[in-house]
Amino acid sequence: MRTYTVKEVSEIMNISPYTLRFYDKKGLFPFVKRNSKNVREFNEEDLEWVYIVMCLRATGLSISNVQYYINLFRQGDETIKKRLELLIEQRKVIKKQLVELKQKSEMLEYKIALYQGIINGNTVSLHNPISEKVKNRDLIKNSKLRLL
Question: All domains of the chain, ordered by start, with CATH?
Answer without folding.
Answer: 1-75 (1.10.1660.10), 95-148 (no CATH)
